[in-house]
Amino acid sequence: MAGSKPLLEVVFYKNTTGNQPVKEWLKSLPKGVRKIIGEDIKTVQYRWPLGMPTVRPLGKGLHEVRSHLPDKRIARIFFTIYEGYMVLLHGFIKKTEKTPQRDIDIARERM
């Protein structure tokens, strides 16, 4: 990846008041966790299209980056591809086996 150009540029979803919820969420995480998630996002940027285990399609243009964190925790960042951009829509740490519908709905609404 060093020296090559990413296939996708990453941008953060911005709401009507100018807030970037995913960026704010990432900043709230410990540095080591941010690094793991950032590396997974970078993998998608440089190797798109990409499937499991790093990316899972959720249908209708929504995808999730799947990050495995220390202590068996799992982070998810939902994104969509729009005109060559990887738009980060919503992020969270999974607390249940199944992805909560509420989190999917947030990402779809932001799409």
Helical segment tally? 3
Rg calc: 13 Å
Strand order of the largest sheet: 1-5-4-3-2
- Biggest beta sheet summary: 5 strands, mixed
Structural class: alpha+beta
Count of β-strands: 5
Low-confidence stretches: none
Mean pLDDT level? 94
Element string (H = helix, E = strand): EHHEEEEH
Quaternary organization: single chain
How far apart, in Å, are the first and last alpha carbons?
A: 28 Å
Concise description?
The chain is of the alpha+beta class. The protein has three helices and five strands; from the N terminus they run E-H-H-E-E-E-E-H. It has a five-stranded mixed beta sheet.
Please provide a written account of the structure.
By secondary structure, the protein is of the alpha+beta class. It has helices at residues 21-28, 31-47, 101-110, and strands at 9-12, 55-59, 62-68, 74-82, 85-94. It has a five-stranded mixed beta sheet. A hairpin with a 5-residue loop joins strand 3 and strand 4. The longest helix is centred in the middle third of the chain and has 17 residues, at 31-47. The termini are far apart.
